[in-house]
Design goal:
Layout (H helix, E strand, L loop, with lengths): L8 H8 L12 H18 L5 H8 L3 H10 L41 E10 L3 E10 L4 E4 L5 E3 L1
Antiparallel strand pairs: 1-2, 2-3, 2-4
């Protein structure tokens, strides 16, 4: 007895909207990538902080290829975590000497509380500027004002 539920590959490819030859396609890239991954891991065992550029120089391969394989297999170089810097002069001191006057205040309409900030911006070697920004707390509308003053060293 003949099974009528079976479909030939031509009809299956047509239903999927692909060419029949793509049903036979087998990528060789994954095998090559595994080989490159093993080479990268061998380099990174000796030099754990090497990124894709140094690994590429070590293996004499293209850096884009190395970066693609490292991303594919989630290979990341060792990076030191940044330490939180605490000044020794600030140890064992209260957080601030100024009280927060609006800590328990319910801000429900504009112009009730404002936030300001002064920022020092350095341009190149010889010039710098101070910028002041003011924000209305409930609306979160920031108005960046012109420089307060500019210095040239």
């Amino acid at each position: 007895m003949i099974n009528t539920n079976t479909k030939n590959k031509t009809k299956m490819a047509k239903e999927l909207g692909v060419s029949r030859s793509s049903l036979y396609y087998h990528s060789k890239r994954s095998e090559i990538d595994l080989e490159v991954k093993n080479q990268i891991e061998s380099v990174m065992t000796g030099h754990p902080a090497y990124g894709h550029k140094r690994v590429a120089l070590e293996l004499k391969l293209n850096k884009k290829r190395i970066r693609r394989v490292m991303k594919k297999f989630n290979l990341k170089p060792y990076r030191k975590k940044a330490r939180l810097l605490i000044k020794k002069a600030d140890l064992n001191k209260p957080a601030t000497e100024f009280p927060n006057l609006i800590e328990n205040l319910a801000i429900d309409h504009p112009h009730q509380a404002w936030c300001t900030d002064f920022t020092y911006i350095k341009f190149g070697v010889s010039s710098s500027t101070w910028r002041r920004s003011s924000t209305d707390a409930p609306e979160r509308l920031s108005a960046l004002t012109s420089p307060v003053f500019t210095t040239a060293s």
